[in-house]
Design brief:
Radius of gyration: 32 Å
Number of helices: 3
Strand content: under 5%
Helix content: over 70%
Number of strands: 0
């Protein structure tokens, strides 16, 4: 009926490989688009922080602010400052 070729690959295990090709054909471009969008939005966010000049305050800045507000005593300030700077 089919002649010398059986063509059963079309309806047998070949469909599984066709599904894998479909995943690759659709999956790879979608993953690339997702990665591109993530890169662009993360870069835009870091540029925005750089433009406003907002940086995370250092530990010493936080300590200085706490001392300026009167949250800690002078002795406690000096001890913590020496600990941060590595002095004994």
């Amino acid at each position: 009926m089919y002649g010398p070729y059986d063509h059963s690959w079309m309806f047998g295990g070949g469909m599984l490989l066709g599904g894998l090709w479909m995943i690759l054909i659709w999956g790879i471009p979608l993953l690339l688009a997702f990665a591109l969008l993530k890169y662009l939005f993360s870069k835009a966010g870091s540029d925005r922080n750089r433009e406003t000049g907002t940086e995370a305050p250092s530990t010493l800045d936080i300590l200085n602010n706490a001392y300026a507000r009167g949250d800690i005593s002078r002795e406690e300030y000096l001890q913590k400052r020496d600990d941060i700077q590595g002095k004994n």
